[in-house]
Amino acid sequence: MDYLVIEGYKSAAEEFAQEASVVPEVDFESIESRMRVREALQRGDVEDAIVRVNELNPEILDNNRALFFHLQQQKLIEYIRQGRVGEALQFAQDELAQLGEHSPEFLSELERTMSLLAFEHSSSTPSAIGDLLSPAQRMKTAGEVNAAILESLSQGKEVKLVQLVKLLSWGQETLKEHAEFPKMSLDDGTVLGST
Amino acid sequence: MAIIASSTSSHPTSPTLSELKQLKNRIIGTPSAKNRLAKDHAMMRMLVETTMDVMAADDVRTEAAQILGSLASLGGHTADATVLAVLIEEDALRCCLSALSTTIPTQVKLRLALARALSGISGDLAELVGPPQWGFGTLEAQSLTGAAVQTLEWFFGSEAMDIWIPMLSGVEAGVVAGMIGNVVRTQSVRERLCAWRNAGEREKKERRGWEATRPSASSGHVLRILLELTGRKETLGNALFALAAMAKDNPAVANELPLQDIVNHAKSCIGEIQLSACLCGTYILRTSSSPSPAVDAILSVLMAIIVNGTTHSAKGAFILSQLLTDSPVYAQLAFDRGALRILLTTLRRLTLPCTSLPPLPPLNPPTSALFTGPEWESWLEHDLDQPKADIRLREATLLSLASISLFSNDIRRALAEDEDETQSIDSNDPSQLHSSTSFSHQSQSSLSLILAALLSPHTSLRCAACHVVRALTRSVAVIRTNFVDSGLGWIVFAAFMGWPQARPRTALGTSGSEEEDIRVVASALRAVCNAVCEFSPLKSIYIEHGLLPRLAEFIHSDHLDADSDYPDAESDVDTEDSLRFNSLWAVKNLVRKSGPATKRQVISVLGWHRQKSTAYPENDSGCVKVSALKRSKLDDLLSSHSAKILEQVLNILRNLAEDEDGISIVLNELDIRNPFNFPTSSSPTSSTGFLLLSRLTSILNQTSSPSHSSHSGILSHSPYSSSQDVLIQSASLLANLVNSSDVNHHRMILTCPGMVHALRRVLAEQGPEVRRPVIRIVLEMVKVDLSASVTSAAAIAEELGPPKDWEESGTNANAIQGGNDEEAGGTDTMEIGYETSPFGSSVITDISSNPSSAGAGRTRGHSRNQGLTGARKILSDAGFVGTLRRIVDQHHYHPSLTHPHSHGHPHPHASVATASSGLGHTGSGIGAHSHPYAHAHGNFGSSSPNSVLLDSPGIGAGARAGGVSVGSLIVGNGIVGNAGREDREDLETARTALDWLERGDMYMYVNSYARSTSRSGGGTGSSVSTGDSGADVSDH
């Protein structure tokens, strides 16, 4: 349930709540609005995502500068991706430069983004920069926003199931240094005996 | 219920919903856009009016309220004075509250938006007014403070609270709870919130007013609701935050809170909740008197938060520093759990090492040339570009380091000597941006980390670094070694002096304001206080480089003069006051155990020196024209309404009067004028002392009299304890003055109108701490009265000499004292060095080396007459006999102590002998060691074998009995515990004083035998000064 809610599977969560007859702790509307934000980001419509986040809770972006910067950065990336160089430059000058002025720690990240302009889709783009254009960057930003919204709703931002797996993996790694034991493989779920 | 709004007229062109939405999305997260909006006054006015306009559609009003809220909060608080100014100017807080009062609970969205705006704006105001919540305040807009104070005052008035407190039960509960956590910062506000009742409760109370019980915190409506809110997941974090704000320094609330539940919340997986729970738990722990095991859980959570390097780390470190502040037990516990290493590792990760300073020559102040060059510029640039979150974390870490090392010498040494052994740091900081590079690969000593912070362009870091330096300088060893070697000694002094040349700057030279921030100066001063103790190598260097004029500037700065140099002066009276207070403290440490030349220099630079006396070249720091009608600077301080200030001034005088030269300075050279502003005749030397004494009399009267306190102003703002401190200092000053060899000084005290009666009342009404010096004054004065009549004044001078700094007399005994003195000074910890009652004695030396003079005393003893100063008669007439007897009789339950005096022996010899043997007996049993004479020598050196040997009742017996046998002196038990000794000592001193008062003439004979009695009596008096002033030094 926790997994379904946090990862935003609204209808599945609804079904699950019904069948398992558990009382959901969250209202499903919030899941839906969160997912709208995520979808907007994934299709590259940062503007829309920002509007939706503000609709949800105007404090989120005000109180989380890094998040807001990443959203703006994503917006810049989308401009560049679409080849709207003029707009990209204008946007960077108007908005991002000011952000950088207030928070100098963002400047180098901004520079990295701006260097995308220099390469213009050429295959020679260094991967450190080219990564910004990848869908993974969108996912990363979307995940950040998702976590921020969840936090504003006082919910855990990480899925408990994932935490559990991480703990298991860490525990196994630690134990491995000290003892031989039957290990659980995360790939196929089988327990590999060492005997 | 509704508040009449300042303006309700609707703007002709109300903005449409989409316009507002657009505006909102433009400004959120964008400081510059907010700034632009704030400058558009017409638009701002329209927003406020729209918010209040009941005719407008809800969603339009919601958007407008959201814009207002967004303006107020940016990264928690707006850092933009323009925005804040316009919010205050438009009275946005009042408008939001007024709008709220007209809404109904079904207007959920609007109410929520309004509550958020309310929370944001009130939080900004609270941050502006202070005290800051996390370390250094972020807002600096002094011109707005006055208006902000007024608005907040209104906000916590019953009218406003009746609107917003009930919202704790609505959908806005979380927001309002968060607001409480943010805005409630002073005790008066906490009390108001606790006392708030809702309408129903108030009605009930009115009806049954005759049986109304005292309102206790537990029945507080706000507290009850907040506790309920901790039961709901979505409001838990904010509710805990609010509870923390309510519980801070407030035992009434803290004791009501369920500590264990709160500690359990600290283990939550949500960062905010962890922080709030830790904060709340910290405040509860700090108000409880006994250490709680719950601290372990909180410590481990806090340490994890700091290590993880998330956005919460800085707050976690701030909470840690609050938990450890002034708590030796928790500091030690945290140290044992490895907190010091974690803090240093964190600090190391965040600090770019600054160019190492060349060893600073101790005699030359650092010059700007030292801090110029390309490497400094790049270092500065990096420091300026460091993310704000990292700066905060650095500040918090430094503050935690200061807290953890404040009390324990071991921790201080561990901190000072840490040399970066831990090279591998597994700091996974997912949320930090890449720019927060780890510098751990470079080896940095902990002191260089502190130095880097001290040189940083960020004010908050310099301030925090000064706190660490202050903690470090409490250790003598650190002052003597690392403090000087690392250059910290110079840099912190430069910060105090406000020298711009001792800070690195960029080529433009505009990296920071030229003027050092007053808060940095204030905290640097506290480090300087520690560094001017008698054993500090820097003491004379600081004085040479202008320490005294700078201190004088702060001590005599006038509140009323607009101090344009210090923008904070107007709003931050606390800083101003603490500057004066700590400057006095520094002077107090400075004059202690200094030579007469230094003492004269100090008082002349401070402008306390009488103009006709010796003028020193330094005397140019603003001397006032002598005018009999105008109050002198010292007069102003002595009539200060602040008990804290008065206490320090008296303590300075007391430290000045610690030896014969000092007494002469205090009584003859201070610039004190007639307290009643009567024109004085052209001041004969004695009148200064007389005026000082009448001033002391009035201080004793004013401070001790409870009925007077409400008008006198001395007590009105201060808790009882500080007025008691004033009494202690006044009495101790007198106790030092009666060590004077000049019987005229005694006469002066005795004949000062009202003085004797004031002393008697203090003795009768005050606690043991205050009584102690008073009893010693009485004893000393009576003894001098009687024994002075049998010997010449010169002989008394020899006998009475205060044992320390008495090289001039050069007897055998004093050589030993000098040696012991050194030892005590060299003790590593100041606390240990001085808190021990100064013991040791030269009695044996005295007696054995001067047997002839004892005999001579006897001969002269028969030729006594009425007494030299008449002290015995005056004191008896004033009723001291009865008062002392009451004190002695109060302790009647102790048989061995009361025994010898419960029935008066006709023969003084017998009486004394009984007393001594009785005491010897008790002493061996309970370790109480209460012969008043034996250990009366105000001497250091508890570690010396001499003192162990001599420090016994047997000596006293021997001395009193006229040096019967030296052998018996050594018999006494020498093992003495400090605990509980003081009370017994007091009692015994009181008993002796009583004896002297009642049967003094009979003692004359005995006394003339053993001249060491009077001598050791002198030691009694001065032991007050050395022991206590030592503690004072350490206490900073």
TrEMBL record, chain A:
A UniProt-annotated Pfam family: CTLH
Domain called CTLH: residue spans: 30-87
Official protein name in the record: CTLH/CRA C-terminal to lish motif domain-containing protein
Source organism of this protein record: Lentinula lateritia
Automatic annotation (TrEMBL), chain B:
Polar residues compositional bias, start-end: 838-853
Superkingdom, natural source: Eukaryota
Protein name in UniProt: ARM repeat-containing protein
Compartments, record wording: Cytoplasm; Nucleus
Residue ranges of the region described as Disordered: 418-438, 800-870, 894-931, 1012-1036
Primary localisation category: cytoplasm
Lineage of the species this protein comes from: Eukaryota, Fungi, Dikarya, Basidiomycota, Agaricomycotina
Low complexity bias locations: 1022-1036
This protein's UniProt keywords: Cytoplasm, Nucleus, Repeat
Organism field: Lentinula lateritia
